[in-house]
Amino acid sequence: MALFKIADFNPNYQQDAFEGEDIKGLDVYAGRTAEKIGTIEDVLVDETGRFRYLVIDTGFWIFGKKVLLPVGRCHVDAEAHRIYAIGIAHKEQAEKLPEYHESMTVDYDYEERVRKVYRTPVAQSSVPVTVERPVEASRVVGMTSQPATPRPASNQVHAAAYDHNTYTYDHEPSMYQMNEQEHQRLRLYEERLVANKHRRKAGEVAIGKRVETEQARVSIPVEKERIVIERTTPQDVGSAVIPGNVDFREGEVAHMSVYEETADVRKQAFVREEVNIRKEVEHDTVDATEVLRREELDVNTQGHPIVDRSNQHPYNR
C-alpha cells in the first residue's frame, strides 16, 4: 500500500480542490474543543488518490512534532475552515504517536504504530469515538459542515487477524473511511479517455537546382572553293589564224568568284524536363489502450430499509 504526498500524486490538486480551497494550512483542533493543536502540513493519499492521512504539524503544542491523523478520525468544518481531530483528544495521546518526517517512507510497520495509538480508547471515554462523515473519492475538502454524530467504533480489528500481506484499509473503515449522513451526497468518479490531436512539424523538404557542366564536341563539315587553272596545248597548235578572227586585248579576260563555308557554333538553352511538386496526406489510425478506473457506490443495508434507486446513474445500474 504505497502512499504519496498529494502534490506528488496530483500536481494540480489545488485546482481540483473543493471551491478552490487548499486543505493545507487549515487549523486543527483537539477533539471537538477549541484547543488548537496545529495545522495541516500535507496529505498522504494511496495509489487510487484516496485520502488516508493528514499530516499535522503540532507547532508549539508538542514542540513542532509532526504526526499522522487517519482521515476517518477527523471532522471537517468547511465553513469555519477548521479540522477537528476526533482521534486526538488530549496531548498525552498525541505524544504517543510516532513522529513523522517528510523524508521518511511510510511503511506497514510505521502505520501499525500509528494505528495502535488510535485503536486505544481515550481516557475521557470508555470506547473510542469516530465520526460519520462523507469523504470524496479524491479529496477531503468539500465535505459539508453539518454536525457529525459520534458513535462507538464497532469495527475494531485485532492485529492477529491480518499481517502486512493481507491488511487493507477496508479492515478499519472507522479509521480510513467516513460514512455518509442521511441525504448527503457521495461523489463517485470515473476516468475516461480523452483523445486530442496536435499538429506538429515532422520535417522539411528543400528543393533546389544546381548547374552541372560537361565538355561537348561537335563536327561540322564545311566546303571551300578553289580556282584551278589548267594550261593545255591545242591540237591545231601552229596553224595559221584567219585574219579578223584574232582579238588581241589587254586587261581582265575572265572573272570567277570563290566561296568557302565557315562553322558557326553557339550555345542555346532548351527545355529538358519539368518537375511538379505537391504534398499528399496519408491517413493512419493510432490505437491507444489505458486502464480506466470508476468508482461504484456500495450500499450496505440492515433490516428492511426502503432504498429509492429511481435516480440512479445509468452507469451504475
From TrEMBL:
GO CC annotation: what is one? Answer: plasma membrane light-harvesting complex
Membrane spanning segments where? Answer: none
The processes (GO biological process) annotated in the record are: photosynthesis, light reaction
Pfam families (UniProt xref)? DUF2382, PRC
- What residues does the DUF2382 domain cover? 186-299
| Residue intervals of the PRC-barrel domain | 16-85
Question: By what name is this protein known?
Answer: DUF2382 domain-containing protein
